[in-house]
Amino acid sequence: MIDDLKAMAIFAETIKRGSFRAAANALNLSPSVVSYQITKLEDRLGCALIYRSTRKLSMTAEGETLYKHATQMLDQAELGIRTVSGHDHATGKLTITLPLSVTSDIITRQLAEFSIANPGIDLHCLYSDEPKDLIAEGIDIAFRMGNLPDSSLNVRKIAVKKRTLVCSPDYYARHPAPTCPEELKDWNWIKHDMLPGSRTLYKDGKKFELDLTGNISANSAEAMVNLAKYGVGLITAARWLIEDELADGRLIRVLPDWKVEPLNLYAVWHGNVTDCSNTRRLLNFLRDYEA
Fold first, then answer.
1. Per residue in 181-214, pLDDT tens?
2. Cα dihedral angle (5, 152, 269, 58), rounded to 10 degrees?
3. If you classify domain 2-85 with CATH, what class do you get?
4. In what helix (H) or strand (E) does residue 262 lie, and over which residues does it extend?
5. Which of 22, 27, 122, 139 fits a disulfide with 17 by CB distance 3.0 to 4.6 angstroms?
6. How far apart, in Å, are the Cα atoms of 40 and each of 22, 35, 200, 272?
7. CATH of domain 161-264
8. DSSP code at position 100
9. How far apart are the first and last CA of the chain?
């Protein structure tokens, strides 16, 4: 039984990290030992737990069932050790991914506060606008903007991100001053690769949806702000990204009486986390906010 428990712990870490090598690094073992332990566990149970490929691992139905029980076992063991030892503080690694555009946002400050409150947790923050595969890349929580695809993952709205419609004074001067959103349909929009190709504007209960037309796009919100400053076209940008530019006149608001539909920031995480996991600890720590 003791050998089975050890193998279950190695199996759970392998699923969490997404590869034998990543699990081996986390457990200070060799990849061959990790592979051997999981193979021995599969032989003991008489079923496959993991589908192996050259690119990533995925669980069989039996693997999903065992992973759920293995994580519960490990969480309860950790909780018991903390309780008996009198050290009720979390340890271990927590890997998250966030959009580049929130590097200077409130959530980054909250992550700093979380790290100070939980010095035993090795918090690894990956800032990227490219979508990450939580299982394949060993990510515990992904923070994502905009509409989310249907999935089996858990989702919670973390924040509402207000946006402002802006362009450079030079670009604005090259067009007749607009009086309504419809007059923007021929303007050049700087598009974000990860966001829908339309924007919705609101005013006094009226709603207008614009299909974006433009000859340039980027996968970074900060790059879009810079392109707008250089006179390429229009953007809808989060307020904290353009405060300085609006203050010194490098960007100006377009149709200031109209509001841009805000973006939601979501937390996405695995469906089988337990109450005493580091994932749940961070989710409970974060406070909903509007910015």
1. 999 988 999 998 878 888 999 998 889 998 888 9
2. 50
3. mainly alpha
4. strand 259-269
5. 22
6. 19, 9, 56, 24
7. 3.40.190.290
8. G
9. 52
